Amino acid sequence: MSSCTPICNENIKPTVGMTFDSMEAVEEFYKAYAHNVGFSVRIGQNKTKDNVIVRRRFLSAKSGFRTKKEDEPKMDLNGEKKRTHARKVTRCGCEAMITMKRMKDGKYSVSFFHEEHTHEFVTPRKQHLIKSNRKVSDKAKSTLFTCHATSIGTSRAFRLLRVGEGGFEFVGCTKRDLQNYHHDMRSTFKDSDAQMFIDNLRKRKKINPVFFEYVLDDKNCLTHVFWADAFCRKNYALFGEMVSFDSTYSTNQYNMIFFPFTGINHHMGSVFYGAALIVDEKIESYKWVFQTFLKAMDGAAPRLVVTDEDQSMKTAIEQIMPNTVHRLCMWHIMRKLIEKVGPPLREDEHFYSTINSCVWGSENPAEFKAK
Question: Which domain of life is it from (predicted)?
Answer without folding.
Answer: Eukaryota
